[in-house]
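Agenda item 2: adenosine-3',5'-cyclic-monophosphate complex prediction
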Amino acid sequence: MQRTLSIVKPDGVEKGLIGEVVRRFEKEGICIVAMRMRRLSRREAEGFYAVHRERPFFNSLTEFMSSGPIVVLVLEGDDVIARNRALMGATDPKKAEKGTIRADFAGNVEKNIVHGSDAPETAETEIRYFFSDLDLVW
Ligand code: CMP
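Presented output:
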């Protein structure tokens, strides 16, 4: 059993896609064990994406991620990190497989609707960034 962090980004919330994203998780049999809506400050967005600090897109990304409400979720299931990434599709929607969330809805490589942890270690860190053990439904 594995856990991962998912985020419906400000563009996903603005486009009214919270339900659509949740539906795709549930349809896939992925269990949602925590879910919360919130708005990140610029500092909180910078902290979350600290590994990308040196990237040319860091400023724009953190401005975007703090531009409106997001929904953060903890997903649980067998191999859920890879399964969530398969549902999301490639970071760049132009390269994402047909039928994935990003291919279907994303505007560009930055405003790409959803985030998903890429490995067990990052999943652990990212879940801890938003949730405590008490927030998770066991
Ligand atoms: P995410 O999966 O949340 O991880 C890092 C984010 O940075 C990514 O989705 C995009 O939103 C953004 N990103 C990645 N590559 C680029 C890029 N080349 N230009 C702009 N934003 C990017």
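Discussion summary: Residues 2-135 form a domain with the Alpha-Beta Plaits fold (CATH 3.30.70.141).
Owner for follow-up: CH.
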